[in-house]
Amino acid sequence: MTTSDLPKILLICREPARAEHWRAQIAAEGRHHVAAVGQSAAEALTLVTQIDPDAIVCDLQLADGRAIDLVRRLRQGKGGSDAMILIIAPSGENPDLLACLREGADSYYVDRGPGPSLDSRLHEMLRGEAKMSVDIARQVLDHFRRNGPIHQGARPVDQMLNPLLLSDLERAVLIRLSQGQSVPDIASHERVSIHQIAKCVRALYRKMVWDLRAGGLSLELI
After folding, report:
1. Which terminus of the chain has fewer Cβ atoms in its 10 Å neighbourhood, N or C?
2. Measured between alpha carbons, how far is 194 from 210 in angstroms, rounded to an integer?
3. pLDDT digits (tens, 9 = 90+) for 112-159
4. Which of 180, 137, 177, 164 has the alpha carbon at shortest distance from 222?
């Protein structure tokens, strides 16, 4: 397989040495091709039009500002790209990270401590999966609670009429994550795979973003 057959990655990092380190991690398994590297949001907006990446891997802080400004511009259609966005953060409790997820970032990678590699997290995102820390889960849960009471048993017809309603599984996953339960434990309790849990997390982020864009008028937690 040649690099032209691999998903194209745009890497945005304010520090060249760190960017090179992340490039090596992304290329380690031969599953992704870093097609271009930039240091700022301005460079990113230029590069996305040149290479049309499948995904953007972005440092939380950029040479000319914060990642949230880039995410916002891309999701508002100002960058001419619908590439998936992975944010690299020092921890899963960083307030700027949640802000990026609210604006439409698809997932994130914590660049400290044990856990899956950057390449693995990127691979998961590209197949529609995401992660969620306890702190972020609690804030996402608060978001849904502010838009309506917590109740169960929404009828299938209601979910068909309102795609922003959370499924029973999405609701259970969010509550259990906010309680600090691990993904394997949640998967075992709900009798689904860990990949289904990760896809639920991605769906939760998307529904939160859609709700915020809609003004929070119709989303509720079931």
Report:
1. N
2. 25
3. 877 789 999 999 999 999 999 999 999 999 988 876 544 454 555 555
4. 164
How far apart CA 22 and CA 207 sit, in angstroms, is: 30
Tokens of 79: 């960058």
Q: For the whole prediction, is pTM greater than 0.85? A: yes
Fold of 3-126: Rossmann fold (3.40.50)
